[in-house]
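call fold target=BlaI/MecI/CopY family transcriptional regulator
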Amino acid sequence: MAKPDPRPQRRAQGELETQVIGALRKADAPVTAAWVQERLGGGLAYTTVMTVLSRLLDKQAVTRKRAGRSFVWSAAADEAGLAALKMHKVLDRERDRRAVLARFITALPEGDEQLLRDLLDRAADEPAD
């Protein structure tokens, strides 16, 4: 009989970022990294929480403000906004954006394709800032 693996199960890519954003969105006001760490539980190291918050700051998905000798953090994007930021990051790494977008669109299920068309039509009708 095999021994159980004592290591915690590895999260899917982006899952921890999503959990951090979710915790920040539930907060009534800007919060500390320690507050986020406490809400996430699971023995997560403070340094891990700080790394995730810093990466989200680089992606403009969170904001931070000095509070005494540390920072307080707020969500700047919801889960959909974070997913959109990830999509932009993928597109920015590719040389042929047109090919990537074309492949993405042709692989969409029919319902999503129509939703995208509706959203693009609505965006085209909105006045530019």
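return ok
Residues 94-125 form one domain. The longest strand covers residues 62-67.
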